[in-house]
Amino acid sequence: MKTRRITFNSPVVLSFVIISFCVMVANYLTAGLSNQLLFTTYHSSLASPMTYVRFFTHVLGHSGWSHYIGNMMYLLLLGPMLEEKYGSRAIIEVILLTGLVTGLVTWFLFPGIALCGASGVVFAFIMMTSFTGFKEGEIPLTVILVTIIFIGQQVYEGLFVMDNVSNMGHILGGIVGAIAGYLLNKKE
Hints:
By secondary structure, the protein is an all-alpha fold. Helix content is 70%, strand content 0%.
């Protein structure tokens, strides 16, 4: 009888999920203080080194368990396929770039807004996934449809739905993912 073993098949994505889980536990144990200090980006002084750290670490924090679970489900569905296709380094770069772009834009354009969560990374992965069948000289219909539906939903929700969701973070993450998906597939 063959034995089965559990494999750590997607080290970057699985590490991201585990670290984000630890951040959620820390946030719960500190009554939100850890998120405020380390895992939420907001318009803080550029003289503070933590401002620059939070430009990247805000993607690890989440406002609650449902926020965490929703983002992690998407990352676990999409991430392993992307990490297998493009490699761990490319996935780390997309995560870091998404964090930086969403953090900087929020800091500069939305000084009254605090941002935390991996939603931008999720949307980067969604757009990257739509590019997996991309070939030079072609535009897959799936890319067009995902872009129209995704951007349309985010614009609609940004204009007509009043909630604590950063639609701009989603759109920026999607743009980062689309560019990364295009460039990574162009190399093949």
